[in-house]
Amino acid sequence: MSASNLLRGTFILTLGTIISKVLGLFYVIPFYAIVGDEGTALYSFSYVPYTIFISVATAGVPLAVSKFISKYNTLEEYAVGRKLFKSGVAVMLATGFVSFLIMYFTAPGLAELTLSTSKNTEDINPKDVTTVIRAVSFALIVVPFMSLIRGFFQGHQSMGPSAVSQVVEQIVRIVFVIAGAFIVLNVMDGSIVTAVSVATFAALIGAIGSLVVLAWYWFKRKPHLDELLKQDKGTVDISLKEIYKEILVYAAPFVFVGIANPLFQFIDQMTFARAMKSIGQGDIATAAFSVLNFQTHKLVIIPVSLATAFSLTLVPSITKAFVENNRASLTHQLDQTFQVLLYLTVPATIGLSLLAEPAFTIFYENKELGTEVLRLYAPVAILFALFSVTAAIMQGINEQRFTVLSLLTGLLVKLSLNIPLIQAFETNGAVLATALGYLAAILINLFVIKKFAGYSFKVVGRRVLLIFIFSGVMGGATFAVYEAITLWVAPVSKFSSIMIVVLCAAVGVGIYFYLGFRTKLIYFLFGDKVDRLKKKLRLPI
């Protein structure tokens, strides 16, 4: 495949991922309006364990399968990839069904772990949580199989099927979530538990929609795939045992990175209500948990997704430089990765923190607790992004075994501090515990990168300081504009909040990128792409 086609395929897949994530963000506006705090809390109670199950069952499968198939296709051993696919269909269906059974039958235990006792909250009990967990568990039957097909197409450098199926899956799921919850509550006069169960069951409906798209692509492209089989050299004889051993080696690091955030959330799910009840705040535990694990978390993930997508595109270059033992290139690639990540993430999180009240109001409602938690939670996005990227770099330098150590250390810090910090600072305590846990994990990752890649942080340290200075200037200007606007317009409605965010963001983005242009920092990070963008946008800078 030509370089231009490869770049085009990568762009299509990245675009599909971004569209899917954006859709996954904005559906919360109507969904929250329909089900409120109790409904979103219930939704989180089921979706966090589901995310862990699905991460273990499928995290890394598309990438691992695509890497395996691409490797043997390059050798013109096309039959090896088809052998994996044929056996993989049965394996993924089996693992999916087993995962479904485990989650379905352990749902009562998971519900008890979540709420500790049936009297932990006044409005949600273990039976309710069991119902919604079981509703979402059905998706496990389909999703692993679906991931295998995506990986198969990606291994043939065909990114369109994965991109289109992701978007279709999200659209179908969201339509079912919103329509199902609305009909249950407003047409059928059903309960909030039934409405949320329908909403979580939408994960299966979305997966089926994605599967239909992938099936269409399969039948459309099968003649071409069969032609490749006729060109097979047939010189490699590899057993299924060896195939799956190689797949597991590829997939394991992605599993640990994929389950990191859900595991941190699951610790909150197990301990939050108990800690709040111990300080006499049990009556607001459900609403506060919804704010923490669903409402603010959805917003905090925005800058993480976009910045990580940009920075991770540099990881293949890191792998190449490390394998070739090109230290100069490796150092340059690592510098670029960290700087691009922080250049995009730091100002976004500072802006989100400063505009916490109108941002939260746009997506949900004007709520003091939501504003307070989002203001503290937003900067933690920097740590989320750093963990993902440092873990990917460790894979690039073939030291992915330390990912397990760093993740377990971070989880231990979170588990040890969560209850005492919640008892001291209520909902904000859970945010602080998450920040400290991620910080511990990142420090281990950075130590490993420094030691095994021989990397010095001196250059990136100076640039990061400059990024924080620029972000501080941007933050000061944004805050001044925000204070001036709110003298006349309060962020109490969605319309006024949108106006405030748009005006403040325009000022902040303008100042930040102006500083980047004037100091040439943006050229160091993005090179000639900046000039091409300037020509397209006809910027005078």
Summarize the SSE layout with pairings:
Elements: H1 3-26, H2 28-58, H3 61-74, H4 78-115, H5 126-137, H6 143-155, H7 160-187, H8 192-230, H9 240-278, H10 285-312, H11 315-323, H12 327-354, H13 356-363, H14 368-377, H15 380-396, H16 401-425, H17 427-453, H18 458-486, H19 494-518, H20 521-526, H21 529-537
What does this structure look like?
The chain is mostly helical and 541 residues long. It has a domain at 1-238. 85% of the residues lie in helices and 0% in strands. It has 21 helices and no strands. It has helices at 3-26, 28-58, 61-74, 78-115, 126-137, 143-155, 160-187, 192-230, 240-278, 285-312, 315-323, 327-354, 356-363, 368-377, 380-396, 401-425, 427-453, 458-486, 494-518, 521-526, 529-537. Helix 3 (61-74) runs parallel beside helix 6 and helix 11 runs parallel beside helix 15. The longest helix is centred in the middle third of the chain and has 39 residues, at 192-230. The two termini are 38 Å apart. Mean pLDDT is 85; it is low at 117-121.
